[in-house]
Each structure stands twice: as structure tokens, then as C-alpha cells.
Specification:
Layout lengths: L2 H16 L2 H5 L9 E3 L2 E7 L4 E9 L4 E7 L5 E8 L4 H9 L6
Antiparallel strand pairs: 1-2, 2-3, 3-4, 4-5
């Protein structure tokens, strides 16, 4: 893993989150849980729909993001692929916080 590049991508993802802080705060992110992973970031949430971890990574070949929901125990629950940068927050919000009768 190229740590410097992964750190740069993680910073980019977090800057996207800063563009809409009210939605991101509604996920109940624990700031201390934010960790850099290979070409992305992983963090713990306490959302209405999902409590556990969310991992966001850049698919470099497609220049699109991939979001993985992970249980408290570390089990992969769902992976959402092919996410454009302008849809990233919305996709995570729908997976973590929003529901029909929200």
C-alpha cells in the first residue's frame, strides 16, 4: 500500500464530507474511529439504519467510489459500487441514515 497516496485519497474523501457537514453529522461518525485504508477511509457510524463501519475507497480504474457497510463484528454486509463523486454523500446517507418514513 502506498501510504502517502492513500492518505491523499482519504483527505480528498473527507473534504467531500466537509461540503455537507449537517448530513454527515447525522450519521453519528465517531471522529476517533476515522482510519486510512488502502486508497480510502474507514469510520464508525451510529445511523438510523446502520450502526457499524463504513469504508469508502476509490476505484482508480473507473475513477468512481465504492462504499462498503461493515458490521460491528467486521462482517461485510453490503457493497455499493460505481458511485460518482457528486452522489457519494447521498449514497452513504441512504445506506446509513435515511429510510422511507424518516
Amino acid at each position: 500500500m502506498d501510504e502517502e497516496y492513500s492518505k491523499e485519497i482519504a483527505g480528498y474523501i473527507l473534504s467531500i464530507f466537509r461540503s455537507n457537514p449537517f448530513v454527515v453529522m447525522s450519521w453519528g461518525i465517531n471522529p476517533a474511529s476515522i482510519t486510512i485504508v488502502e486508497v480510502g477511509v474507514k469510520f464508525h457510524v451510529q445511523g438510523f439504519i446502520h450502526t457499524g463501519y463504513v469504508q469508502v475507497v476509490l476505484n482508480e480504474g473507473e475513477d468512481l467510489f465504492e462504499v462498503t457497510l461493515i458490521s460491528e463484528e467486521g462482517e461485510t454486509l453490503k457493497t455499493i459500487e460505481h458511485i460518482f463523486v457528486d452522489n457519494l454523500i447521498c449514497v452513504i446517507d441512504e445506506a446509513v441514515e435515511k429510510c422511507e418514513n424518516y
